[in-house]
Amino acid sequence: MTTTAPAVRSFDKLFVGGRWVEPASSNVIDVVSPVTEEHLATVPEASAADVDAAVAAARKAFDEGPWPRMSPAERGEVLRRIGAEVQKRIPEMVASFTAEIGAPSIISQAFHGNATAMWDDAATLHERVAFEERRDWDGGSALIVREPVGVVGTIIPWNGPVATASLKLSPALAAGCPVVLKPAPEGPVSTLILAEALEAAGLPEGVVSVLPAGREVGEHLVTHPGVDKVSFTGSTAAGRRVMSLCGDRIARVTLELGGKSAGIVCDDIPLDRVLGSLLPAGFGHSGQVCAAITRILVSRKRHDELVEAAAGVLSSLKVGDPCEEGTVIGPLAAERQRDRVEGYIRAGIDEGATLVTGGGRPQGIDRGWYVEPTLFANADNSMRIAQEEIFGPVLTVIPYDDVEHAIRIANDSEYGLSGAVYTDDRELGEHVARRVRTGQIFVNDASMCVTQPFGGFKQSGLGREGGVEGIEPYLETKMIQGV
């Protein structure tokens, strides 16, 4: 495969408190294409001093500025303008994200369409959330008010930066909170384009900052005394660290972490009504999605039938340049990520699972961080490939004895983020869905709804994002009695 790295815009300034300013240091992030391994762009790398400046601007905006004091409806109008400005920039955001991270264009389009939906939904939250209410009881009455929690520090990963940033920024801003956003260094360009959309929408000074940087700067933001709440999306290991740091000072925290979600296929449903949604839920975006459904649970009597059908689908997928029409599997985002996925594939073989298809690097592609879509069968749920989040295009088929056994397998995980159950029996589908301990679960589908509560049980995180539930972590409740 011969390909040329597409042009991606470089930046030389940081977005601090709503203004483009010179960075405090000369450090830069070199953005490298996962497709060609060539240099794409350069952006400033934020430092602790930049975080200090951004938090100071946010603190002033919260303590003295108009944003927290505007009515929720007035803030909603600004959020509506942000959504419109994001919509204008989707073509460049899509091109940049595809170039930076290697997501096929169809995936990138979907992610950025989701971003505009999040802004539009958050713009109407004031119609559905009671920011003030009168409450009466025997012997008294009070005004219950819900106020912005304060300055928010937000850390997002690289696998969907504009969508994830929008999922956090939009409810925080709707609540009246200023936000300091730290994107990951692997995908900073599209988030700086998002900053341009925020600027164009006319937010007051100090309300939003965008500071691409690595882990150390992220820890500085999390521990900053001027930050009242932290919202983090990333790995469970990193989430533990963030939670411990927030615990030291009782800072509010929301965590959206890893997953190892299961799709349960019941015996009564034809496979042609299953695989069209279940398989893409596992290999979409090369499996680099926290809610990916990568464990497929099927009865022993249907195991071989499902494996044969799934292998046929996976082996037919086009792997290659994410900009080319028809490409389904692009590269992994980083060389270290490819190494990690290949290590899990070796572990699956060593532990005795059957490698059915894939398992290597695609033939004919001599550059880029690619791994073939891979299918394991005859796996046991105790294996590492069934217990640990791989974050790559690796699906594991696990046989079960009966539906109750399938539910036990699905719940035998430290995670609980997403899931699916496929059956023609509506009552059975609801029974299974209620029994699986996960934050979201689909019956006869496997997707994601960005305007409804999203989050996990167990080590998949704390709190919810999206919809009415998504604004709650950014509000504090106060009782005013005697008025």
Brief characterization of the structure:
The chain has 483 residues and is of the alpha/beta class. It is 37% helix and 20% strand. The termini are far apart.
Q: Care to describe what's here?
A:
By secondary structure, this protein is an alpha/beta fold. It folds into 2 domains: 14-257 and 460-481, Aldehyde Dehydrogenase, Chain A, domain 1 (3-Layer(aba) Sandwich); 261-450, Aldehyde Dehydrogenase, Chain A, domain 2 (3-Layer(aba) Sandwich), CATH 3.40.309. The protein is 37% helix and 20% strand. The protein is built from 16 helices and 20 strands. The chain has a 7-stranded mixed sheet, sandwiched between helices. A 6-stranded mixed sheet has the order 9-8-7-10-11-19, sandwiched between helices. The longest helix is centred in the N-terminal third of the chain and has 18 residues, at 105-122. The chain is globular, with a radius of gyration of 23 Å.
